[in-house]
Amino acid sequence: MTEAGKAGAKTPRASRVVMTETVLPGDGNVLGSAFGGRIAQWIDVAAAIACQRHCRQRVVTASMDDLHFLKPIRVGMIVELRAQVNATFRTSMEAGVRIESESPLTGERAHVCSAYLTFVAQDEHGRPVEVPPLVLETEEDRRRDQDAKRRRAVRLEHARAKRERLLAETKERG
Ligand SMILES: CC(C)(COP(=O)(O)OP(=O)(O)OC[C@H]1O[C@@H](n2cnc3c(N)ncnc32)[C@H](O)[C@@H]1OP(=O)(O)O)[C@@H](O)C(=O)NCCC(=O)NCCS
């Protein structure tokens, strides 16, 4: 059976999320720019919605890859987050989020950050469950899927190394 014929199969387009926020004074630091943590929260929410649109299950954040804020976002700016599912695995999915700032006065936009997150679908008992496959429609979909597979290999290796370090530290402490 083709991916498209499998139960619940969807295109990345079907999971798309556009979330628009404004940076209020409570979202900012003393220098007048947004807290990185607030942007990370919005990223997590946008990515989770994309994954839920894909699988229609409960999802938990398994990981968020390194976040690099390329430009500050000033208090008062509009922030647009565009998210979609890039790739699906067995019980997990990678969502990509592109974050742009927009001046409410001039409309000038800047690409501030791109983020990649992995979510795991779970049943009501918190057990991982399989997610529907992704139907890749366009060249762009195929490129994103390939890139996501490469990132997954690196990410799982990092997670494994971190887990081992943590276990070793715990044993040392007794
Ligand atoms: C994420 C979590 C469910 C994985 O549990 P686990 O016992 O490792 O489960 P499994 O080994 O069956 O893995 C389930 C899936 O998670 C993926 N996964 C596990 N750790 C991961 C990580 N660090 N990054 C990306 N994916 C990860 C596995 O690759 C697997 O995906 P696949 O089925 O598509 O191959 C578990 O670690 C957890 O509950 N973490 C806390 C999540 C949470 O509360 N997040 C909110 C912030 S605190």
List the helices and strands and how they pair.
Elements: E1 17-22, H1 36-55, E2 58-64, E3 78-88, E4 92-102, E5 109-122, H2 139-173
Antiparallel strand pairs: 1-3, 2-5, 3-4, 4-5
The protein binds coenzyme A.
What's the number of domains?
A: 1
Radius of gyration: 18 Å
What shape does the CA trace take? Answer: globular
Summed over residues and divided by their number, the pLDDT gives a mean of 96
The number of E-state strands comes to: 5
CATH class: Alpha Beta
Bound molecules: coenzyme A
CATH topology value:
Thiol Ester Dehydrase, Chain A
Task: Record the strand order, biggest sheet.
Answer: 1-3-4-5-2
CATH architecture: Roll
**Class from helix and strand fractions:** alpha+beta
> What string, H for helix and E for strand, traces the elements in order?
EHEEEEH
List segments where confidence is low: pLDDT < 50 over at least 5 consecutive residues. Answer: none
In terms of quaternary structure, the protein is single chain
Please estimate the helix content: 25-40%
Count of DSSP H/I helices: 2
Please summarize the sheet with the most strands. 5 strands, antiparallel
Outline the structure in words.
This protein is of the alpha+beta class and 174 residues long. The protein has a single domain, classed as Roll (Thiol Ester Dehydrase, Chain A), CATH 3.10.129.10. The chain is built from two helices and five strands, in the order βαββββα. It has a five-stranded antiparallel sheet with strand order 1-3-4-5-2. Residues 60-63, 89-92, 118, 120, 128, 155-156, 159 line the site of coenzyme A (COA).
